[in-house]
Design brief:
Oligomer: heterodimer
Number of domains of chain A: 4
Radius of gyration of chain A: 25 Å
Helix content of chain B: 10-25%
Structural class of chain A: mainly beta
Shape of chain A: globular
Radius of gyration of chain B: 37 Å
Structural class of chain B: alpha+beta
CATH class of the largest domain in chain B: Alpha Beta
Number of domains of chain B: 5
Largest interface: A-B, 98 and 111 residues
Largest sheet of chain B: 8 strands, mixed
Helix content of chain A: under 10%
Strand order of the largest sheet of chain B: 8-7-9-6-10-12-13-14
CATH architecture of the largest domain in chain B: 3-Layer(aba) Sandwich
Number of strands of chain B: 47
Distance between the termini of chain B: 77 Å
Strand content of chain A: 35-45%
CATH superfamily of the largest domain in chain B: Peptidase S8/S53 domain
Number of helices of chain B: 13
Number of strands of chain A: 35
Chain lengths: 492, 830
């Protein structure tokens, strides 16, 4: 028997699930604590784990080899439909060996059976069987190398492929090319997760043995590892929710312009949908050579001594612009506000590996703002009002901007005032900075006001965003902050 | 090839074999010996609980396959090396038990058994013959089980009363796949293609782009009980297809608003009830009964509001999605008073993470994991029943529109056969029914879900209970803002806010008065189908940020009763004390009254409602005159014509470049004499539409001097003036910024007190995105401009002293290049 430990969250970068029951087939049972963490006994070797909780869909982990891995991170979703089944689906994989038109060319993979890539592309078929198939079906899934891909819109976690279910057919497939797999060499796990309609999840771990061309570049230690923890006030969505990239681009352009003339402006978009996250750590670093390693690995520790690998990626996949700068993002559910976390980046090639110095950060808790005055739907407001607000969860420094919009009745010129940045303030007089479109507001006119506000610690390595609809701070456009409408009174 | 489907078909057989657990489907390894038959080439026969004529034989490593086959006169079907077994087919007539017995004598055989089959309850392909047991709601649609949204909205209970037959829903959206097998029977023609301004008929092909419209239409009214796919919330309602865009990136406000008006008027373009109107169905308020609009954006739009008001004014229901930002702030469509705006929910009646919030929401409806018809992947295949999973408030909207259709159908007056005679609920009544019967998890109104989640069963019950008399009607408030000094002048851009309905005393309702350019006359604003109550009204305008003048205000208390249509103010309207822009040249509406203009002058005038402004000038044969207009205020759509002394048109321009509302032209003067420049507005004009008209000599192309200079953002630096082109007031050049970093320079003399006007027009919008700077002889910047109209620049400056002045033209932040015209003018002295 070995001890298997881990964390359970509702999604990548999301809230921990406390009080979930973790059961290992042939092993023990345990409950997750307030931080979603658990420790349970498991047989050594191949193990199957089930996680469940009242009101939630369940998760089943298959193909876990406890001889190699004793720490896991899993996701447990709230049940989408309380009346529907909470039994996790089952999944089986087969690998294509030859012409896909030949039916016999699909080789079923047994649980735990190592799949050799032989240096070639691999194509794998996934068959998902759900409980209660008349009312339920395989909805979505993710196949990823090395790290189980989650529901985060921006994964930055190994190579990933999205899988889509179809109630009318229970098999789908995905491929990884040899060149994509070239970041790896030797044993690495393929993770395939699938969700049914109700959020029940199966997570299958399929070991691979990757044969890649040798990269014998000398490796150097990555430099300037400066983690930045980012926390949001809400379970936010990543970007405007449209399936087509051009719609997203059009929306972003529209928002940044805000001076659009009313006529003939292609600005209305169909309202199709989501994905969410609320806490992650970005680890930027630089690499001091143009001869790149085969892969960068992100390693993380919570005590500064014992490190475990988060994931690896080929340099091209995590390049941040040009000139040797990179960024890897950790969205693990193990990240917790107030829990210090340490990172090292390792450069790996077939001639060796080199570690960076350690960088660290302590993620902040949620920072929220509460608009006070003018209050929602207040009328007869002064033409030069004073805006006031309160906040919770502020760290060492807060930066805020007041934004007043004349968006409800306009033909262009919607921004009445976008204030200068204020530090550690919770009040602002209209136009204190002289930058408003007009020295005072229009009488008997409706406006809406909101804040962009972010807090940052003294070290400058952790920040939390309360609201930032227009992405003033260039961290992320956090759109769901509070907004108050008000109506001015007459000229004084 | 659709790999997934192909694969499923092949595996179908293999899974049957595999489910008994005795063998797996092996790949065919090439091996010496008899060539096996590939599995799946012929479907084996079932014989009771086993495959007929097949035996599975387990063989030791050293076992002799040939001996086995010879012993039974069998042929090899398949083999599984890993399990050490083969699948063989024995000849007809030989019993399997006997064959197994014969193998006992063969060396290396470990076992032999029939190829049993376990039965599988799941079918790989959905099919359900008519009369098969219904999964939900008494309908035989086989995939209705995946449509949890129907269960959430209690649609089946509502269907006991009505399935929406006879109610017409306009789906204003991307092009719908109208011949989709699970939509076709519910599509009503003709529909409307707004971007192309043509009708949609059964013969109109799909535009190849639209997906969203198909999903939306299917959510509201996919055909029910036809044995395929699922069903919509109103499975027998009619969908009138109204396409508002052929682009994947969105729909313009203009096309959307025009589509709304069409949805009410129908193909004859006559308003319901107007003389000659022939296409409004009897007993209906409009060509359709409900408009669904699952689009929206962050910008307020007057056009959109007028289009929506038109729908409500004519008694047609308007349903729209809240939006997916998620934001609490305002957006278009959903914030127009009187609409039914819908947020999105999950199966646990909670708001989805992406759904917009706010005090404008009416209700909420399912918007996650919605299984609905999608545009067919094989668009010409009538049996391709494509379906898709979708998420968004886009689908909460039509789900509610479907519920509204059930409500209208339930309440309607019907004849003996049950067909609808008259639709008798107003839009506010439909909204109130949905709001009053919605399920609120907290027991009251919330900015997450509005009044709550739509419950179609309770809504239909309320509709059955003499609803047209018992359900509270909405109220309407009309007003026209006029200039106190001249009540014939309507005032556009007056913002109006109402607060204080009885149902929602905290809610603010917004509007703005029209510019007269679309549906309603200038100064008009209205609120249709809003809740009754004692309101405070606040109004001021026109917006000083656009007019530069102090706005007039009006504050009033207004009490509205249910069903009331009130007009605010008196006969003339609501007077506002507003200083109207003056046009010193009026009257100049006829050649006899024409205002004299000479080369070099730029005159500021007002393009009033239905106004014509005429300017006369003298010109010499062989000259080329350049007449340019520039909007200063408001949004006129200017047109320039050059007329000769007898009024004959010699030249005309309506738009200097595509998309520009200002006009300009170069006119080659044929003979010396007097000519007229006529300026009109292709719209209706308005009291605040102010423009500049300039007359200059066209000098042709400016020589490219390749001057040095640097533009950073909006600042010029290091400009070399030594090569500046000598010009003068009264000249227009065509010049080119050859590269992004090119700076063109000009030099001219001016007198103290002269107001210089330097105006530019790019030949292509944003190419270049011009920056203009006016400098004195010492190189000091006196005035600059980046964007005056769009990205064209204009500088106006009163020169302090006699002397030489310099003008630099570059591109904003050195980001663009292109050809432009530049005119040097002066405003005549007072």
């Amino acid at each position: 028997m070995v001890t298997l430990s881990g964390a359970v969250a509702q999604g990548r970068g999301q809230e921990a699930v406390a009080g979930a029951t973790v059961t290992v087939k042939g092993g023990g049972t345990a409950q997750t604590d307030a931080n979603g963490l658990f420790s349970v006994s498991a047989p050594k070797g191949l193990a199957e784990v089930t996680i469940s909780k009242a009101g939630h869909a369940s998760t089943r982990v298959v193909g876990l080899n406890t001889a190699e891995t004793t720490e896991i991170e899993e996701i447990l979703r709230p049940a989408f439909d309380a009346a529907a089944t909470t039994k996790a689906p089952s999944m089986s994989l087969s690998v294509l060996r030859g012409d896909p038109a030949e039916p016999g060319n699909w080789d079923d993979l047994e649980t735990g059976e190592v799949l050799n890539t032989y240096g070639e592309d691999i194509t794998i078929a996934v068959k998902v069987q759900v409980d209660d198939p008349e009312m339920n079906t395989f909805k979505t899934g993710v196949a990823s190398i090395e790290v189980a891909g989650g529901t985060s819109g921006h994964l930055n976690a190994g190579l990933t492929r999205n899988l889509f279910g179809d109630p009318r057919g229970d098999v789908t497939s995905f491929s990884f090319s040899a060149s994509e797999l070239a970041a790896y060499q030797g044993k690495v796990n393929l993770h395939v997760t699938a969700y049914d309609l109700n959020g029940n999840r199966v997570h299958l771990i399929q070991p691979l043995n990757v044969l890649s061309p040798k990269n014998t570049n000398a490796v150097l230690a990555p430099q300037n590892v400066n983690p930045l923890a980012v926390t949001f006030a809400d379970n936010l969505t990543f970007g405007p929710q449209s399936v087509q990239p051009e719609v997203r681009a059009a929306l972003l352009e529209q928002l940044s312009g805000l001076k659009a003339s009313a006529l003939n402006q292609p600005g209305l978009s169909p309202m199709a949908a989501p994905d969410d996250a609320s806490l992650w750590v970005d680890v930027p670093f630089s690499y001091p050579s143009k001869d790149l390693p085969r892969a960068f690995e992100l390693w993380r520790s919570f005590d500064g001594k014992t490190f475990s690998k988060v994931f690896s990626a080929a340099p091209q996949r995590v390049a941040a612009g040009t000139s040797g700068r990179y960024m890897m993002r950790d969205t693990s559910p193990l990240l917790t506000p107030g829990r210090e976390v340490f990172y090292k980046v390792r450069a790996v090639s077939d001639s060796g590996a080199a570690n960076s110095e350690m960088g660290n950060t302590t993620p902040l808790g949620r920072y929220t703002v509460n608009l006070v005055s003018p209050s929602q739907a207040q009328t007869l407001v002064s033409l030069k009002p004073t805006f006031t607000w309160t906040s919770t969860g502020a760290s060492d420094l807060t930066v805020s901007n007041v934004i007043v919009l004349d968006r409800v009745q306009s033909e262009g010129a919607t921004v009445a005032w976008l204030s200068e940045e204020m530090e550690n303030q919770e009040r602002a007089e209209y136009n204190f900075d002289g930058s408003a479109a007009q020295p005072q507001l229009q009488p008997y006119h409706a406006y809406e006001w909101q804040l962009a506000s972010v807090t940052i610690n003294a070290e400058g390595d952790a920040l939390a965003v309360a609201a930032d609809y227009f992405n003033l701070y260039n961290v992320y456009a956090a759109k769901s902050g509070p907004v108050h409408e008000f109506v001015t009174g007459g000229a004084q | 090839m659709n790999h997934r489907q192909h694969f499923a078909g092949i595996l179908g057989l293999s899974l049957l074999l595999a489910s008994c657990g005795q063998t797996s489907t092996p790949p065919l390894h090439s091996a010496p010996g008899p060539t096996p038959t590939a599995p799946g080439q012929a479907v084996p026969e079932l014989d009771g609980d086993r495959i007929a004529h097949q035996l599975i034989v387990g063989l030791d490593a050293g076992g002799d396959l040939n001996a086995v086959l010879t012993a039974l006169d069998a042929r090899l079907v398949d083999r599984n090396e890993r399990l050490g077994a083969v699948l063989i087919e024995v000849p007809q007539g030989r019993s399997l038990e006997k064959a197994a017995g014969l193998l006992r004598g063969v060396a290396g055989v470990r076992y032999a058994e029939p190829n049993y089959v376990a039965s599988k309850p799941v079918q790989l392909e959905s099919q359900s013959p008519l009369g098969a047991q219904s999964v939900y709601g008494g309908l035989n649609d086989p995939e209705i089980g995946y449509q949890w949204f129907l269960r959430s909205m209690k649609a089946a209970e509502a269907w006991k009363t009505t399935t929406g037959k006879g109610i017409r829903i306009a789906v204003a959206d991307e092009d719908i796949d109208r011949h989709h097998p699970d939509l076709a029977a519910n599509i009503a023609y003709p529909g409307y293609d707004s971007p192309n301004n043509t009708l949609i008929t059964p013969a109109t092909p799909h535009d190849g782009m639209g997906q969203h419209g198909t999903w939306v239409a299917g959510t509201a009214a996919a055909v029910g009980n036809n044995g395929i796919g699922g069903a919509g919330v109103a499975p027998d309602a009619s969908i009138v297809p109204v396409t508002i865009t052929h682009s994947g990136t969105g729909a313009s406000y203009w096309d959307s608003a025009r589509a709304f008006v069409w949805s009410v008027n129908g193909p004859d373009n006559l308003a319901p009830g107007d003389a000659g109107d022939a296409d409004t169905p009897a007993g209906r308020s409009g060509y359709v009964d409900i408009v669904n609009y699952s689009f929206g954006g962050d910008n307020y739009s007057q056009i959109l509001r007028e289009g929506i008001e038109y729908v409500l004014q004519h008694g047609v229901v308007f349903v729209t999605s809240a939006g997916n930002t998620p934001t609490t702030g305002s957006s278009s469509g959903a914030w127009v008073p009187g609409v039914i705006s819908v947020a999105a929910t999950t199966a646990t009646d909670t708001r989805t993470t992406f759904s917009n919030r706010g005090g404008h929401l009416s209700v909420a409806a399912p918007g996650e994991n919605i299984w609905v018809p999608g545009t067919r992947s094989r668009i010409n295949d009538p049996s391709d029943n494509t379906y898709a999973y979708v998420n968004g408030t886009s689908f909460a909207g039509p789900a509610t529109a479907g519920a509204a259709a059930l409500v209208l159908a339930a309440a309607a007056e019907k004849d003996a056969s049950g067909a609808i005679n008259r639709v008798n609920l107003t839009p506010a009544q439909v909204r109130h029914i949905l709001e009053d019967t919605a399920h609120s998890p907290t027991g009251g109104y919330t900015t997450d879900l509005g009044y709550g989640v739509v419950r179609a069963d309770r809504a239909v019950d309320m509709a059955l209970n003499d609803a047209s008399n018992r359900v509270e009607k909405g109220a309407s408030l009309d007003m026209r803002f006029v200039a106190q000094s001249d009540p014939s002048v309507g005032i556009p851009l007056v913002g109006v806010t109402l607060k204080g309905s009885e149902r929602r005393p905290d809610q603010l309702l917004y509007g703005q008065s029209a510019a007269g350019a679309f549906v309603y006359p200038s100064g008009h604003t209205s609120f249709y189908e809003i809740d009754a109550g004692d309101y405070q009204l606040f109004a001021s305008g026109p917006r000083p940020i656009l007019t530069g003048t102090a706005p007039g205000s009006s504050v009033a208390s207004v009490s509205l009763s249910p069903g009331e249509r009130r007009t605010l103010g008196d006969q003339a309207g609501v007077p506002l004390a507003v200083a109207l822009p003056a046009d010193p040249y009026e009257p100049n509406n006829t050649p006899a009254q024409a205002t004299a203009i000479t080369y070099g002058q730029g005159l500021e005038a007002v393009m009033g409602e239905r106004d014509t402004d005429l300017y006369r000038f003298s010109a010499q044969a062989g000259e080329t005159a350049f007449i340019g207009t520039q909007t200063l205020l408001g949004s006129p759509d200017l047109k320039v014509r050059v007329l000769d002394g007898s009024g004959k048109e010699l030249a005309v321009n309506a738009s200097f470049r595509s998309g520009l509302r200002d006009a300009a032209l170069a006119f080659r003067v044929p003979a010396s004499g007097q000519y007229f420049a006529e300026i009109t507005d292709e719209g209706v004009g308005g009291a605040f539409n102010t423009y500049l008209v300039g007359l200059t000599r066209w000098k042709g192309q400016a020589p490219e001097q390749n001057e040095a200079g640097r533009v950073t953002n909006d600042t010029f630096g290091g400009v070399d003036w030594s090569k500046a082109l000598g010009t003068a007031v009264g000249e227009t050049y065509e010049a080119t910024l050859a590269t992004n970093t090119d700076v063109d320079t000009f030099r001219l003399s001016a007198r103290a007190g002269q107001t210089l006007v330097i105006d530019t027009l790019a030949h292509e919008s944003g190419k270049p995105d011009l920056m203009l700077g006016l400098f004195d002889a010492q190189g000091q910047l006196l005035a600059s401009n980046d964007d005056f109209t769009g990205q064209d620049s204009m500088v106006t400056f009163e020169v302090p002293s006699d002397g030489e002045y310099f003008v630099a033209a570059g591109s904003y932040n050195a980001e663009s290049k292109g050809t432009y015209t530049i005119s040097f003018m002066e405003k005549p002295g007072q």
